[in-house]
Amino acid sequence: MSQKSMEPYGLALKDFYDGCKNVKIVFHRDDGLKEEAPLSFYFRSENNFTLIGKQADKLCQGRVLDIGAGVGPHSLTLQKYGFDVLAIDISPHACEIMKKRGVLNVMCATVYDLKDVTFDTIILMGRSIGFVEDLCGLKKFLNYCKDLLNSGGILLLDSIDVQQTTNEIHLAYQKENLKLGCYIGEIRLQIEYKGQLGEKFQILHVDPLTLTNSANEMGWSCDILLREKNGGYLAKIC
After folding, report:
1. 159, exposed or middle or buried, with CB in 10 Å at 0-12, 13-18, 19+?
2. How would you write the pLDDT of the chain (238 residues) with one tens digit per residue?
3. Angle, helix 208-217 to helix 135-148, in steps of 10 degrees
4. Diameter over CA atoms, the chain
5. What pTM, to 2 d.p., does this model score?
6. Residue-wise DSSP of 204-228
7. What are the residues facing 235 on neighbouring strands?
8. Closest alpha carbon to 92 in 112, 114, 113, 69
9. Which residues contact 179 (CB under 8 A, 6 or more apart)?
10. What single DSSP character describes residue 162?
């Protein structure tokens, strides 16, 4: 995932923030599936958080790193409750909007750009863990977090178990992934906005068991705290 792949998303965020409230982006999956997404979701307030989002915020402690913060819904909420939060995102447009909305500490960066800083909580909400791209990337990230978390620190993330779907199109995509030797939750996408297509990129949706096993392999413990009917879940890693 790169800044160029996120450029249409960033431009759409800017237009929505500037007053164009009917803005939508289109996700193009590499099997031809297209799905529209309204921008209002990214600007959700605390009142509109899912149970998973609300629970994650309640579990935060100490200094917080918000990875893939977008336009800062969770950073703003945590700030309101007195937390010291660093919000990071790779989209310059998202970062500028966060600053305008009142997020105090913002960096346009990836987690791997962070050096000589530590946190008590790392959160990745809105399935931002997807940025790791694949299971090797997940293990790399978990290993890197050992240097970012203070003693007793926690990592909170949400993802989705794609195996829970009954949609034949998604099931066929999973089967094709297996044929290609890929994990079923690896999704290859492009984002379109106003006819502009960003670069191709890949995200990871990781099921709870695979996440737990990967965490254990890297020396972490993993607890699945909440599960949704659609396969979504909240995990705590420490």
Report:
1. buried
2. 777 789 999 999 999 999 888 889 999 999 999 999 989 889 998 889 999 999 999 999 999 999 999 999 999 999 999 999 999 999 999 999 999 999 999 999 999 999 899 999 999 999 999 999 999 999 999 999 999 999 999 999 999 999 999 999 999 999 999 999 999 999 999 999 999 899 999 999 999 999 999 999 999 999 999 999 999 999 999 9
3. 50
4. 49
5. 0.94
6. E---HHHHHHHHHHTT--EEEEEE-
7. 157, 224
8. 69
9. none
10. G
CATH numbers and ranges of domains, the chain: 47-189+198-237 (3.40.50.150)
Tell me which residue has tokens 């790392």.
122
**68 alpha carbon, distance to own chain's centre:** 5
Strand, coil or helix: what is 169? helix
Using CA atoms, how far apart are residues 101 and 95, in angstroms rounded to an integer? 10
Torsion angle (degrees, nearest 10) of CA 188, 163, 138, 5? 20
For the CA atoms of 176, 178, 180, 183, the dihedral, rounded to the nearest 10 degrees, stands at 110
**Which tokens sit at 194?**
């106003």
